[in-house]
Amino acid sequence: MRRPRERAGRRAGRLWLNAPGMDNDLVKRLAWSGLLAGVGALTSIVANRIATAIWVRVTGEDPPDA
């Protein structure tokens, strides 16, 4: 496999979150809010699927509609 080439003028290991645009507090808050919302949505989906699987295994029928 080939190694990725380093771009001229960039330090190796520099993350895009360290870019100059992240110096703005508003951008940081918006990025944090988006990340938190995404993780919350994924957590909700996973929790629903686990609860459904447990319900079906215990009762043998589909869960009631909420």
Give me the number of helical elements: 1
Largest sheet, strands/sense/barrel: none
Helix percent band: 40-55%
Residue-averaged pLDDT: 84
Counting helices, strands and paired strands, the structural category is mainly alpha
Radius of gyration: 22 Å
In N-to-C order, the SSE pattern is H
First-residue to last-residue Cα separation:
51 Å
Number of strands: 0
Strand percentage lies at under 5%
Overall geometric form: elongated
Low-confidence stretches: none
Q: Could you characterize what this model shows?
A:
With about 70 residues, the protein is an all-alpha fold. It has one helix and no strands. It has one helix spanning about 25-60. The protein is elongated, with a radius of gyration of 22 Å. The N and C termini lie far apart (about 50 Å).
